[in-house]
From TrEMBL:
One of its GO terms (cellular component) is spliceosomal complex. Its main location: nucleus. Associated with the spliceosome. Keywords: mRNA processing, mRNA splicing, Nucleus, Spliceosome. Residues 77-92, 136-162 have a biased composition (Basic and acidic residues). Residues 33-53, 67-92, 136-171 are annotated as: Disordered. This is Pre-mRNA-splicing factor SLU7. Involved in pre-mRNA splicing. It comes from Tagetes erecta (African marigold). It is found in: Nucleus. Belongs to the SLU7 family. It holds the Pfam family Slu7. InterPro entries: Slu7_dom (IPR021715), Splicing_factor_SLU7 (IPR039974). The keyword Magnesium does not apply.
Amino acid sequence: MIVVRVIIAFSYCRMVYKSQKDHRKQKELEEARKAGLAPAEVDEDGKEINPHIPRYLSSAPWYLNAKTPSLKHQRKRNSDQNDKTKSSRYDYDGKRDRWDGYDAALYEQLKFERFEARDEARKKYLKQQQLKKLEEKSYSKNEDRDDEDALKADDDEAKVGESKQMGFAKVEKRVRTTGGGSTGTVRNLRIREDTAKYLLNLDVNSAYYDPKTRSMRGDPLPDMDPNEKFYAGDNQSRVSGQALKFKQLNMHAWEAFEKGDDVHMQAAPSQAELLYKNYKINEVKLKSKAKETILEKYGDAATEEVLPKELLLGQSEIEVEYDRAGRIIKSQVNS
């Protein structure tokens, strides 16, 4: 992981970003190509590139170090000769058949073998546990009946364990979306002991509750002490935690792109994240440098140094007289 980060950082440092003027010229050229006023861009094979293709699809990833415009990074590379013969032998539907090469008999055999091996291992383990418990209880005389009860309990526990593994103990519920259809199964939407969102504040003018999606974006109790309430609305999760960090990362990528940096959050997320980390580090350095400059110039009032009495009171007992040129004429201490 460290080696990958070093390689990414090295490749990132080697990148040369365009100036704001060059970036503006590039945007104007792209608009002219889309309008048909300028010839289309040509790749290394002499083929024209459609100017209406989105930038995040036409531009190659930064780690490929592409020097000329091309769409080869979007094409599937046939590394084996068999793939070429297969593409000449199959038609359009044959090449896209997801069940090509599937052997149902082999799959059934492997599936049965796997389940049988799992059952044998479980029976062997349970048998060993039962033998251990019988050996421990064989030292007492009147434990024949207890041994039978223990065996029955072990069998019951084994059955319960198997039922849990099969998923019978899983509580599921089908949830319908606002646009129709189903989202699948979810586990325990709400604990029954917890108060429902719409019961936190019965005022009709309070936060709106959507019964279909079971969402309440606003805070139902805005005047309540934040340390005492456990629910502050669904929007609270959007402005806190990792959601806020991801939002800041997106905003930084947009602002950097507008200022001329060739960065895109969806096309190259690793590059955008590395740029944002370097920006935060430089920001901390600049703030600390500015703080040191201010402290060096004006001093720190929070230190424990004792200031002179004349600075605290704004006066002293020294009498000084000056002439018109600012020279000291007379200086004496008043008694």
